[in-house]
Amino acid sequence: MTILTGLKRFGAGVIVISGLAVAGNSAMAQELSDDHIAAARGAIAALGSTDQFDGIIPGTAEQLKVSLIRANADLEEVISATVDEEALKIVPRRGDLEKEAAQIYAKAFTKDELDAIAAFYTSDAGKKLIETGPLVTRELVKSADIWAAGVTRDLSANVSAALTEKVGERPTLSDVKP
Q1: Does residue 130 fall inside a structural domain?
Q2: Domain-located, residue 36
Q3: Could you report the per-residue pLDDT of 114-149, keeping only the tens digit for each?
Q4: 114 and 141 part of one domain
Q5: Taking Cα atoms as reference points, which of 108, 124, 93, 92 lies closest to residue 43?
Q6: Is 128 inside any structural domain?
């Protein structure tokens, strides 16, 4: 695969994703006040949601590097430098994503709700929830998995005993002689 083919494939993916974003944007072409958008930005900032955006451009650049270098290992240095240069040129477009996120939040929540969200997540309790929430969620999932395994074990044993009581012992494969 040549560099051009790799770029074409990568570009096709970007075009498809961009088309979906444009289609989604036109669906949300609802007029929102500047105050409403500002409240949405405040809520997003309080939630720390924009931190998730930080890795998009570097991650995309790294994927492109790997793809192009696999096909053209002899050009690793020039590919790496070129991808980095071009990635830096599109960093300012990150603001577009933040604007889109604010519009999504503004469409989903009233200004008062967004103000309340921002107030909560900037409070001590909200900050603690952001900080410890992922750990608590992991512990809850682990606990639920252990509980589900116990329920599965007990239900299986109870059903087996109840069926044996209703229909009697049934031969098993180990009971059958060839």
Answers
A1: no
A2: yes
A3: 999 999 999 999 999 989 999 999 999 999 999 999
A4: no
A5: 108
A6: no
Q: Are residues 11 and 82 in the same domain?
A: yes
Domain that holds residue 145: 136-175
Q: How many domains does the chain have?
A: 2
- 86 and 149 housed in the same domain: no
Q: Is 178 exposed, middle or buried (0-12, 13-18, 19+ CB in 10 A)?
A: exposed
Tell me if 131 is assigned to some domain: no
Q: How far apart are CA 49 and CA 18, in angstroms?
A: 21
* Residues 6+ away with beta carbon under 8 Å from 53: 94, 97, 98, 101
Amino acid at 141: V
Closest CA to 10 of 85, 84, 63, 82: 63
Query: What tens digit of pLDDT does each residue of 4-24 get?
Result: 445 445 454 445 455 544 444
Q: What is the pLDDT of residue 169?
A: 85
Question: How many angstroms separate the Cα of 3 from the Cα of each of 15, 73, 81?
Answer: 18, 11, 14
CA distances (Å), 24 to each of 17, 18, 30, 97, 116, in order? 11, 10, 12, 12, 27
Instruction: Burial-class residue 120 by CB neighbours within 10 Å (0-12, 13-18, 19+).
Output: middle
**Same-domain status, 140 and 90:** no
Q: In angstroms, what CA-CA distances link 6 with 3, 61, 103, 107? A: 5, 13, 34, 38
Q: Are residues 15 and 73 in the same domain?
A: yes
